[in-house]
Design a protein that fits this description.
The complex is a heterodimer of chains A (295) and B (313). The two termini of chain A are 19 Å apart. Chain A has 295 residues and is mainly alpha-helical. Chain A contains 11 helices and no strands. In chain A, helix 4 crosses helix 6. Chain B has 313 residues and is an all-alpha fold. Chain B has 2 domains: 45 residues, no CATH class; 217 residues, Orthogonal Bundle (MetI-like fold). Helix content of chain B is 77%, strand content 0%. In chain B, helix 7 crosses helix 9. Chain B starts with a helix and ends in a 6-residue tail after the last helix. The chains are: A mainly alpha (295), B mainly alpha (313).
Chain lengths: 295, 313
Amino acid sequence: MSVIPRTLPGADAVPAPPSALVRGGLLRHPGVLFGGAVLVLLAVMAVLAPWLGTGDPLALDPVQRLKGPSETYWLGTDFYGRDLYTRVVYGARISLIVGITVATLAISIGLAIGLLAGYIRWLDTVIMRFMDGLMAIPGILLAIALIALTGASLLTVVVAITIPDIPRVVRLVRSVVLTIREEPYVQAAIAVGTRMPSILVKHVLPNTIAPLIVQGTYVAASAILAEAILSFLGAGIPPEIPTWGNIMAEGRVYFVIAPRIILLPGIFLALTVLAVNVLGDGLRDTIDPRMSKRV
Amino acid sequence: MYGFIAKRLLATIPVMGVVAVVVFLMLRLAPGDPAAVLAGDIGSPDDIRRIRTALGLDQPIHTQFFIWMGRLVRGDLGTSIISSVPVTTMIGQRLEPTLALATTTILFAVLVAVPLGVLAAWRHGTWVDRLVMMFSVAGFSVPVFVLGYAYIFGFAINLKWLPVQGYVSISEGFWPFFQRLILPTLTLSVIYIALIARITRASVLEVLGEDYIRTAHAKGVVERRVLIRHALANAAVPIVTVIGLGVALLIGGVVVTESVFNVPGLGRLTVEAVLARDYPIIQGLILIFSGVYVFLNLAIDITYTLLDPRIRY
């Protein structure tokens, strides 16, 4: 739920062909390399979670509760005697799933609405007024209210985080459409009688791809944070599921005797969000250079 | 000028109207029976019926809408399902800690972030600039609650410099009040500082390329005066804009920070209302927070005309 539109589109850059991008620095940019590498490692960790020396993330062992790190429990145990290392490794799964799903959903829905708003004039005012109102509601509060009404599950949390992100994507897409539709080649297409859907798909859509990939990384980063915040507040994914936010929420009461229960998943969470943000900044510099002039 | 203010005031009506409609529709369009969800797993059929009546869900939807809007216009945000206290009263009781925290955070963030941004732009491309930019990216990535607990661990538990948690009203003395606000302010302001420093740097950097800066240098104006009087003053509009837009970040952060530090403000009230499934309070808080956000940004729009004589509406 990035609150500030960090990408304000300009208009005039010509997208470079993909091969030139790779040669021209995409894979040489330190941010892309660092962010990408950290995310690949996290993804591998999430997929291979059962084979990384982990046990059952839900197995309770009351005798072993709140134990420090040992040979059996690499990072110690929590209040219920569950293995902290196992739960942190499994927690990566939820964070990555939430980040990827929310980004995909928000971008696709926002793209569809943004194209319509940018191209059909009478719809524009209606849609944008509605989006302005939606954007005035703080994202976390909107998500909290939606979850309170629908009950908490992975699905409702994903939907509740996606909805506040959609208006920002709509604004971005709409502004790209508004500049592209004035381009001579679009005017020419209109003049020779090309139908609207075909203009949108062939001429307008390609211009939205680069800014949307960049925006998608920021949406993913803020979605991962938002999920953790909701879980931490007790308003997110049900507490028995190992997510970083849930592990931290359970650690609150024992913070003074076992600060690692909060700090370890916290470090993983911060590292993940940092990697996604740095990757996003790197992508903005390389594939969407007209935006790097802003901020 | 007055015409402009009136026009901007009118423009907030549709925005707040949409907010009210969204909040209204959320409860009515939620899949399943919201009354049953709000009653919770142990809610009896009686509880569900009571909640349905309390929220007016037993009436036809257009009747509900007019009742809801009519009450809103009169400033009535409904009553709590659980305590039957008016929502406005509950919000009023919890206002002071949040106002205090918001004030210290905004002051601290602006006082730190603007000089940092100017410094980074002035020393563009050096290690100072890179350090500020690294801080700014990191500030966006470290979750507020992780930061809060890290501070508690370091400053309150290990060093014992500051109290761990809690809030004391300013009426009970300034130092006890201020002391308990230090860690929450440091926690909440990091993301805000990151944001403002970033924009300040970008916008001062843009201005530093202008001809009048070169002229100022050429006629021998001292560096500090060039930076503040010539560069920062002309870069002020985007900075002030982002201070206003960033309040949305602060509102999300307040909910988390107040939970971490046990501050009994509006953020904690939000979390308590969610855990108790007291939907009218959540509704009221959304309306209040959105209203504050919209009107603050309206106020900022109006100050532009004061900041920048070139802007004439």
